[in-house]
Write a structure and sequence with these properties.
Layout (H helix, E strand, L loop, with lengths): L5 H6 L11 H11 L7 E8 L12 E5 L10 E4 L5 H7 L3 E3 L1 H8 L7 E4 L4 H4 L3 H4 L17 H10 L1 E5 L5 E8 L4 H16 L11 E8 L5 E2 L4
Parallel strand pairs: 3-4, 3-5
Antiparallel strand pairs: 1-7, 1-8, 2-6, 8-9
Length: 228
Amino acid sequence: MRKNSKRYREISKNTVKNKKIDVKEAIDLVKKNSTTKFDESIDLSLRINLKQSKGGDFSLRTVINLPNGSGKKNKVAVLCEQDKIDEAKKAGADLVGSDDLIEKIAAGKFDFTKLICTPAMMSKIGKHGKVLGPKGLMPNPKLGTVATDLTKAVKDIKTGLVEIRNDKDGNLASTIGRKSFSTEKLLENYNHFIESVKKEKPDTIKGEFVKSIFLTSTMGISYQLGAK
């Protein structure tokens, strides 16, 4: 039988069973439980109502710009025309290129976590969608990764832009910061995240859109939050 670590047994003493708790209390508990040496992420797990009254299931895929950032460090690549390369570099992109970057992608060299593309270059990158798509790297206008304003696009992804997407059961997950964030900053990010998700509710879905919310950290235990 597998034994839990001493650290896990210790933080398990803070478990709250069969009870939904206030978000501020949950944040404080999650931060208290983040006892590892690295800066654990503070994560939300939601279940949303997918059932539409007019048939078919709703699918949610969008981006949310957290007011205090996510704390996640992305390595951003920009695919653009030659005359936009300097703009992308000045914006803080880690990797910038045109046809030369496409060659690297074709060779399977994915040393970046996000790919931004200008509209003019989309026709060239399209044939690589089967490779980029499964890795979550295919540029998409809805996700802020197809853009003409490269300065804004790079800044958004470098700071607080997080992507969310539900699975077939209506579950979606995202980070809202790191354990090094203050409770106030995490609370502000949380409120903004939940309100942003609620705004995505279609008129064809009746009743509560967000059915349940859980908060945890990378190596912590989970807490169910009361309705917001």
